[in-house]
Amino acid sequence: MRKLITLSLVSLLVLVLGGLLWHFAHEFIFYRLTVLEVPIRFEEGLSIDHEFTVDIPATYWVAIQYDEVFRSTIENPMPEDEFTAESEVRLRGRVIAKGGTATLPAETGPWRSNRDQVARYLSSFPAEPGEKYSLSLRITRLFPGSVGKNPQALVEIEPRLTPFYDLRKFVFVCLIAAIGIIVLRVAAGFAIGLRCRKRTHPAQA
User: I want to staple 84 with a disulfide (CB 3.0 to 4.6 A). Which of 50, 141, 180, 188 is the partner?
Assistant: First the structure.
């Protein structure tokens, strides 16, 4: 009877802990870094409109990402703009963010690059889960050499929330595995104890 009570308490504890871990995972680990990713064309006058939602409350950035190999140097610390663009983000028909390459010029405008792509940020805005947002983006001018670079319109979470994202997921998976092993050991111990008890006290005919 005591072992049954212990197993019940352990099971209840596991359920509570599982609920807390699910909430933690949803809030801090398994969220989308990029909530909108739409292929576009580098074409003067191009205009797009797309709706999107977010997973966690945070600051998000509108960006145009394109193929470009760029290495920052002392002489050339930031990539030069290859286009000009404007963007608006709306919530329930109301403009909540407006910006572009003119608002954030190339000399100071935020950007990021990886091995073979550059993303030019246009504006930022706070967003909450459960709301439907709308992005309007327009290419107003192109400079020579911007053709064939596979541009994409992006809405992504603020970069400060992305460090160690993969590490956090790995730690979470390891934690779940450890909890699973503990539960299996407790269940196995209970089953072995119950079997030994039956052998020690066989049922009376």
Answer: 141
Taking alpha carbons only, the member of 147, 125, 149, 145 closest to residue 135 is 125
Rounded-to-integer distance, Cα 173 and Cα 177, Å: 6
Q: Are 47 and 131 in contact (CB under 8 A)?
A: no
Q: Are 64 and 153 in contact (CB under 8 A)?
A: yes
Query: Which residues are registered as beta bridge partners of 44?
Result: none
The CATH number assigned to the domain with range 34-161 reads: 2.60.120.790
Q: How confident is the model at residue 121 (pLDDT cuts 50, 70, 90)?
A: very high
Encoded tokens for 5: 């009570």
Three-class secondary structure assignment of the chain: CHHHHHHHHHHHHHHHHHHHHHHHHHHHCCCCCEEEEEECCCCCCCEEEEEECCCCCEEEEEEEEEECCCCCCCCCCCCCCCEEEEEEEEECCEEEEEEECCCCCCCCCCEEECCCEEEEEEEEEEECCCCCEEEEEEEEEECCCCCCCCCEEEEEECHHHCCCHHHHHHHHHHHHHHHHHHHHHHHHHHHHHHHHHHHHCCCCC
**131-158 pLDDT, tens digit each:** 999 999 999 999 887 777 899 999 998 7
What is the residue extent of each domain of the chain? 2-26+167-200, 34-161
